[in-house]
Amino acid sequence: MDFKIQWFPGHMTKAKRMMEQQLKLVDVVVEMLDARIPRSSSNPMLIQMLGDKPKVVALNKIDMADPEKTEKWLQTFKNSGLPVCKVDCSTGKGVKQMVAAIQQVARPVTDKWLRKGVRNRSIRVMIVGVPNVGKSTLINRLVGKNKVVAADRPGVTRGQQWVTIAKGLELLDTPGVLWPKFEDPEVGFCLAVTGAIKEDVYDRETAVELLLERLMHIYPEDLRVKYAIDFSEAEPVREVMAKIAVARGCLKAGGVLDIDKVIQLVLRDFRTGRLGRFTLDEPSENN
């Protein structure tokens, strides 16, 4: 796959250092993943940073992912021993189950405190993930409109605060941002088309061509129905883009095809779920 990211994140080291400081303050970490790209939106760096700290995986944007593949991904995580739940932050679906999963994985920690005679100590939680995966939306939903600020904690920088989200559960009201690494072009492609990285660091036209080629093979009927076009799976992707341009009126003066409008259209429809429920990362035994 010839897909390149022009990515020079000078702030990655700073973000990593900040994340390490924040992780010292918490007992449980929720790693939020995009259900359409569970592998590509996971950051292997987090595993090293966490050590033996308990983690819960939250698959977000399930309303835009392929339901069958989501179930397979859930099983993949369960098989690897990771507590996992599926959530839809925009509606709140699955959030209660996620809170219950956090309480469950924290039990060994709370039991240890009880043995030491420590009572009334809240479990402290942090939500982490790559950009645009839904962390802030989840935090806002957990916190609610009326923020109940917990007692000040040492070591928390200005602008960060602890809020109570359930009995005995406090959340660091700042999402932890994991900056993705792009050694694998497939990961870069998946993060690009789902909107996790800015469009000025990659070629949108190449991204859309690759996306349409993928959808033509995995979800051809959705494409045909959505854009009212017909094509064979062996058809060149540029011809399919031309058909979309004609069907959707993406035309310049004189009937010239406006491919840039097609690119905008496909990206928008894919990212909003209007195009269909798609999962780009295939679950496998090697995840």
UniProtKB/TrEMBL annotation:
Subcellular location: Cytoplasm
GO biological process, one term: translation
Gene Ontology molecular function: GTP binding; GTPase activity
GO cellular component term of the entry, any: cytoplasm
Domain CP-type G, first and last residues per copy: 12-180
InterPro entries on file: G_CP_dom, GTP-bd, GTP-bd_ortho_bundle_sf, GTP-bd_ribosome_bgen, GTPase_MTG1, P-loop_NTPase
Statement: the UniProt record of this protein carries the keyword Cytoplasm: yes
Glycoprotein listed as a keyword: no
Record PANTHER family: MITOCHONDRIAL RIBOSOME-ASSOCIATED GTPASE 1 (PTHR45782)
Function recorded in the entry: Required for a late step of 50S ribosomal subunit assembly. Has GTPase activity.
Annotated NCBIfam families: GTPase_YlqF (TIGR03596)
Protein name listed in UniProt: Ribosome biogenesis GTPase A
Organism (species): Phascolarctobacterium faecium
